[in-house]
Specification:
By secondary structure, the chain is of the alpha/beta class. It contains five helices and ten strands. Helices cover 23% and strands 19% of the residues. It is globular and about 85 Å long.
Length: 221
């Protein structure tokens, strides 16, 4: 007990307590990316083993949407804002383990997105970037150029609870909320998610201009 506290105790006074406010931890505005490289040999080999076309992989690497973790060799799929800043990063192991995650600080409002290079009134929605590229591979095999279509990855989907009213529109669908989009195709392997997601989109988005359709696809092997 220091001298001042001792005197206050003798005089039956309660010493003042100084409370130091805890620092506020603000949400990061950018993900904490691991050290990475666009020399993606390990990642490209992994994706080609999954059946994805090499030219399509190269296209996304050139657009700086796919990178490789220097430390682990994991595939990094980037979602960017209009200024080209990485705002979301999905990591996927390439060593055969099922490890996958969003990098800390990622904002799913900016998920992996392939923007059409020509006028387009539709958007196809996928569970993951790998599913998106698998579908682009199918399109190429059928003589179609995937770059003529909007394609968006949700960076994973979650199953709704028993109460469908609690289902939340994925944040990464925000870029599609505009009158120029007339057709929405949801392509996910989760049958439980599709009808609820589509119903929610129909009521929450511009339902009078949307035509709903569903398809199902899995990664090509």
């Amino acid at each position: 007990m220091d001298f001042v506290s001792a005197v206050q105790a003798v005089m039956n006074q309660t010493p003042a307590v100084r409370i130091t406010p805890q620092p506020k931890h603000e949400k990061p505005t950018q993900p904490s990316l691991p050290r990475y490289t666009f020399d993606c040999k390990t990642v490209k080999d992994y994706l080609q083993e999954r059946g994805i076309d090499g030219e399509i992989i190269d296209n996304f690497i050139e657009q700086k949407q796919i990178a490789e973790s220097v430390k682990t060799g994991a595939a990094l799929f980037f979602g960017k804002d209009k200024a080209g800043n990485v705002r979301q990063c999905s990591e996927r192991a390439t060593d055969g383990t099922p490890n996958k995650k969003d990098t800390y600080g990622s904002d799913r409002s900016y998920c992996f997105f392939s923007e059409a290079q020509a006028p387009c009134t539709s958007v196809s929605v996928f569970e993951s970037a790998i599913d998106l590229m698998s579908f682009a591979t199918i399109m190429k095999r059928r003589g179609l150029d995937f770059r003529r279509f909007h394609m968006l990855s949700l960076s994973g989907v979650y199953l709704p609870g028993k109460n469908e009213k609690d289902f939340r529109i994925p944040a990464s669908l925000e870029p599609t909320r505009k009158p120029s989009i007339f057709t929405l195709t949801v392509i996910t392997p989760a049958d439980e998610v599709q009808p609820v997601l589509l119903q929610s989109l129909e009521t929450d988005m511009i339902s009078d201009t949307f035509r709903r359709s569903t398809e199902r696809t899995t990664t090509i092997t």
